Amino acid sequence: MNEKPLRIIAVITARGGSKGLPGKNIIDLAGKPLLAYTVEAALQSRYVETTVVSTDDEKIREVALAAGAEAPFLRPAELASDTAHSPDVVSHAVEYYEKRDGKDYDLTVMLQPTSPFRTGRHIDEAIEKFLEDRTLDSLISIKKQDYPPWWMFTTEGARLRPAFHFKDGVNVFNLERQEFPTVYRPNGAIYVTWREYLKKTGSIVNPENNGYYVMSEADSIDIDLKADLYAAEYEMQLRLGNTVT
């Protein structure tokens, strides 16, 4: 990364409405609003030039500003509903800055505020890994999935049907977990995308040309429900060196 620095913008998506855990984006975690952890991570990055929080909520905007992020607008209503898509939210924020400043960005990094253990180091390593192969359109952070998806089913009437095909003639219930391939799933912490790809396709992920950055189970904690918050509080106390009972 010794050539001309790329212009990179981090967009933190933090709308006000949350049904699973009301107010989750600014809920307290170890004495700090949840959103603040993601803002601090973006600000710690050596590569991110602009850190912006896109929200429709004034309280969230105030927390974002206090944490050091930029939040020059409130997201329009059509981008704040349950059905609003993240790529549209990211595009709106990036277009706002490009129009305002008259300069284009090269990379977009979407960060969800529900991943408090994702750090500036993680962001930088993800960006570096993405730039190792510039033919990629996107990169996402992932974590190992311990439960084999071939043991998952859909229902059809009174019967179970395999959700995923494994191998012809193989009864998956005769296999041990270790006999399945290692699989991963997105952890929601980091999404890196070429700005040009986002502009052309309206997407932040190309599943056919997508890189990956592996994170640990603990660093991948994603707070969507009360149980997730309890897990994050437990992990935070461990990291602070406090005795947990």
Report on the architecture of this protein.
The chain has helices at 34-44, 58-67, 86-101, 120-131, 195-201, 226-239; strands at 8-13, 28-29, 32-33, 50-54, 107-111, 138-145, 153-156, 159-162, 183-194, 210-214. With 245 residues, the protein is α/β, with parallel strands linked by helices. A hairpin with a 2-residue loop joins strand 7 and strand 8. It is globular. The mean pLDDT is 94.
The CATH superfamily is known as Spore Coat Polysaccharide Biosynthesis Protein SpsA, Chain A
Distance, first to last CA: 45 Å
Major sheet size, sense and barrel closure = 6 strands, mixed
Shape: globular
Rg result: 20 Å
| Average pLDDT figure | 94
In CATH, the topology is named Spore Coat Polysaccharide Biosynthesis Protein SpsA, Chain A
Task: Give the DSSP E fraction (strand runs of 2 or more residues).
Answer: 15-25%
| Approximate helicity band | 25-40%
What is the number of strand segments?
10
Please give the CATH class.
Alpha Beta
Instruction: Label the CATH architecture.
Output: Alpha-Beta Complex
Structural class label: alpha/beta
Low-confidence stretches: none
